[in-house]
Structures are given as C-alpha cells and as structure tokens.
Amino acid sequence: MFAETxxxxxxxxxxxxxxxxxxxxxxxxxxxxxxxxxxGLRLERSxxxxxxxxTDAGVEFDPREVEHVGPNExxxxxxxxxxxxxxSEVEAYHRRGGRNRLTFRxxx
Length: 108
Prior knowledge:
By secondary structure, the protein is an alpha+beta fold. The chain has one domain (2-107): Histidine kinase-like ATPase, C-terminal domain (Heat Shock Protein 90, 2-Layer Sandwich), CATH 3.30.565.10. It has helices at residues 2-6, 10-30, 80-87, and strands at residues 40-46, 49-56, 89-96, 99-107. It has a four-stranded antiparallel sheet, covered by helices on one side. Helix 2 packs antiparallel against helix 3 (80-87).
C-alpha cells in the first residue's frame, strides 16, 4: 500500500519490500530481544528519497560495522545484509533507551 500511495516505481517498490522483509527477519532471528517486544517500522518518501526506519529492542547492531563474508551454506542464509546494502544505504543508526533505531535510504 505504501509503495502505491507514494507512487514508487516497480523496481523501487520491490527493493523496499525485500529490504523490509530481510531486516525484520534479521531482527527476529538474530536480535535476541525479549519475547513480545515490538519492532517498529516507519516508511517515508520525500522528493526522490524513500526512508525505512526500524526500531527494535534487540542487541546493539550497526550493519555498517559488519564484514560481509558471503552466504552461510550450512545455515542457508547470510546474504541479506549484502542485498540490503546493495539497494540502500544506512542513513543513520543509534541506540538509546535499550532500543536500536536504524534508517535505510533508497533512491526512488
């Protein structure tokens, strides 16, 4: 619904969808947040930029500080962060009050 309302091109909408799915999955699988904690998502478009801001109560994690080592064939994953960073950039990250706040920026 956001992509349509914001008038995103099909490719941008697809990339945004994949970024949201991948990052939310990473928070759930690796964030180690307490059961029942809330993941927040805010989407915004201004001019030619789309922002996806996530908040979560997981462990501190800035994806800019991770060295991508490729897929983990044993576990069947590991390409998500590389994919996200190929389609967007980290505009901001900080941790306050036990919550991460991470904003990805995509060109629309």
